[in-house]
Amino acid sequence: MNDNQAFFDHINQGYITKGDFITMGSAMYNGETVTNAHVKIPLKTLNRHGLIAGATGTGKTKTLQVIAENLSEQGIPVLLMDIKGDLSGIAAASPGHPKINERHEKIGIPFEAKGFPVEILSLSDQDGVRLRATVSEFGPVLLSRILDVSTTQAGIISIIFKYCDDNKLPLLDLKDLKKVLQFATQEGKEELEKDYGRISTASTGSILRKIVELEQQGADIFFGEKSFEVQDLCRIDENGRGIINIIRLTDIQDKPKLFSTFMLSLLAEIYSTFPEQGDSGRPELVIFLDEAHLIFKEASNALMGQIESIVKLIRSKGVGLYFVTQDPTDIPDGVLSQLGLKVQHALRAFTAKDRKAIKLTAENYPISEYYDTKEILTSLGIGEALISALDEKGRPTPLAATMLRAPMSRMDVLTEVELKDLLKKSKLISKYNENIDRESAYELLHKKIEKAEAEEAKAAAKKEREKLDKDSSSSSRNRRASTTEKAVIKVLTSATFIRGALGVLNKLLK
C-alpha cells in the first residue's frame, strides 16, 4: 500500500459517521488535495463548541459561512455576529466561478449555488430587528459583574433590586436604575435605611459613574423594552431550513463593553430558558462569535469567570458556541479547553512573537504521522485549514489539512435594495421595533417624590396659616387692650376729671 492510499484510508476511517454530518472539504497530503477523503463533522458533536482561527485574509469568514449554510440545510438555526459587515450575502445565491468548480472537483463534491433564509438583527440604530433586554432580566449579580463593581457596591445593587421588587418598581432601562440609586441617598434615604440599612453616597456615586461609562458605549439603546425572546433565534422556515440570524455590529467595533454585555446577557438568557437536551443527536442552535477577542477585551476576572461557566454549561442545552479570531491565544485557556472542533487557517511568522504563537498553537492539535504541524501552519493557502474535531463517541479525529468547500451563497454583501427587500419580509421587525416606554421605576419614583414634595408644601402652608392666625389673634387682643388703656388715660387726663379730683381734695384738706 502506498502512502497516498494509506493516508486516504486513515482519513476515511477516522471520519466515519453513522448519523447526520456536515462535510467541510477533503484532506490534503503533500500539498495536494486527496479527492473524496472527506472531512466530516457529526451533528451530534456540534454542541461541543469550536474555534475558527487564522491570520487576516486566510478565509475564516468563508469557513464560518460554509458551516452556517450546511447547518441551515440540516434544519439547525444559526446566530452570526457580523462585525465586518460582510455576511449579509448569505441570503443570496453565489454567482459561481470556474475556480469554485475546479475546487469542488478536487474535493469530490458537486457545487450548488443557493441563498439561505436570513433574519437581520441590530443592537443599535441600524436597520434590523432590535435586540433589547431589561435591567431586571440581568439581575443584580450579572449586572454587578458587567459593571465590575466592588463587593460593597454589588451589595448595594442587590439592595436596590430588592427595594424595587418589594415596592413594585420595574427596572427596565438604565434611566430607572440611576433614578433609584439617586433616590436611595436623597429623598428616600430614611425609608431605605429603615428597612435595608445605610447606603453610602460615595458607593452609589461610584456605581453611577460605571453606569455612565456603559451608557457612553451605547448600552442605553440596548437596555429597555420590548425585550427580545431568545426562542425567536430557533426558527425554521417553510422549507425546513434553519433561519440564519445575522446581528449587524459594524458600528460597535470600538465598544467592547457593549458587545460583551450583550453576549453575556444573551448566553445567560439562553441557558436559563432553554430546556436540557441530553444526548439529542443534533444542536438546537449554533452561535458564531466573530472577532471573539472583543468579548474578552477589558473583561474583569469576575466577568471572565461567568463566561467560562456558561461555555461549560450551555452545551447541555443543545447550544454550540464557535469563536472566530485571528490567534487562538485571544481565547482564554479556560474557554479554549472546552472547544471540540478546531479549524486553523494559516498563521504568519513575521516576528519572534508570531513564531512563539505558532509553536503554542501547534501544541493544541493532535500529533500526526502525516504532518509537521508547525510547518504546515505557515504553508496553508487561502481556503485551506487544519481541522481537528470529535467523532460521535467524543474522541479526537485525525488531524487533517483540508481543502475547504466554497460557500453556496454570495461571498459579498447585499446591495441596499436587496437589504431593504429582505427587511420587508421580516416577521420579527413589527414585533420588536416599536419603542415602548411604559411606567417604570423612573416615572413611579418621580411621582412619589412629587407627591411627597406636595404634601410637604401643604403641611408647610398649613403651619404658616396657623402661625398667621395666632399672630392675628394676638394682635387683636393687643389692639383691644391698647384701646381700653387709651380711654382710661383720656378720662384721667380730661379737665372735668381733674377739676372733680381737685374739688374732692380741697374738701378733704378743709
End-to-end Cα distance: 172 Å
**Mean pLDDT across residues:** 85
Say how many strands there are: 12
Biggest β-sheet: count, sense, barrel?
Answer: 12 strands, mixed
3D shape: elongated
In DSSP terms (H or I, runs of 4 or more residues), the helix count works out at: 19
Helix percent reads: 40-55%
Radius of gyration: 38 Å
Low-confidence stretches at least 5 residues in length (pLDDT < 50)? Answer: none
Strand content range: 5-15%
Structural class: alpha/beta
Sheet with the most strands: spatial strand order: 2-1-12-11-10-3-9-8-4-7-5-6
Architecture overview:
The chain is an alpha/beta fold. It has helices spanning 3-14, 60-73, 98-107, 135-147, 151-166, 174-185, 189-196, 201-216, 219-222, 256-273, 293-296, 301-313, 333-336, 352-362, 373-377, 416-424, 429-432, 441-492, 495-509; strands at 21-29, 32-42, 50-53, 78-82, 118-122, 129-130, 244-248, 285-290, 319-325, 341-344, 384-388, 400-404.
Output the keywords:
elongated, single chain, alpha/beta
